[in-house]
TrEMBL record:
This is YqxA family protein. It comes from the Bacteria. InterPro entries: Uncharacterised_YqxA (IPR020534). Pfam families: DUF3679 (PF12438).
Length: 121
């Protein structure tokens, strides 16, 4: 249990360091280029139930929640993508799904350990 807590804490600290490093690097790049205060690489602005996301100057607007899901259209697009994708894409998607499921299971186990230890105290 102690080992799992240490690994989890280490991963959290490393992720925080990565995000802090990216932010610091972006600020320093802006200072060097002389355009301090310019829009960030990723800028998120929520307004009146809509979210505007600007990534490297490209603006994407979303509306939340989606008014209605067209299940037939989703299945049609999914079938089209499956027919047009190659074997490497399929293998990559299956590997990604497996990694995602494994990570979720690992998190469930770790949280289960933490919950069981809290109840024992």
């Amino acid at each position: 249990m102690r080992w799992a807590a240490q690994v989890t804490a280490l991963l959290m600290v490393l992720m925080f360091g990565v995000f802090l490093g990216i932010d610091t690097a972006e600020q320093n790049i802006q200072k060097i280029q002389g355009n301090e205060g310019a829009p960030r690489a990723v800028h998120i602005t929520p307004e009146n139930g809509r979210v505007e996301i600007s990534v490297m100057g490209h603006v994407v607007e979303t509306e939340n929640p989606v008014s209605q899901e067209n299940v037939q259209r989703v299945n049609q697009v999914k079938h089209s993508v499956q027919q047009n994708s190659g074997i490497l894409a399929k293998m990559g998607n299956e590997m990604g799904s497996g990694i995602r499921q494994g990570a979720r299971k690992a998190i469930e186990v770790i949280v289960g350990w933490l919950d069981s230890n809290d109840k024992n105290r």
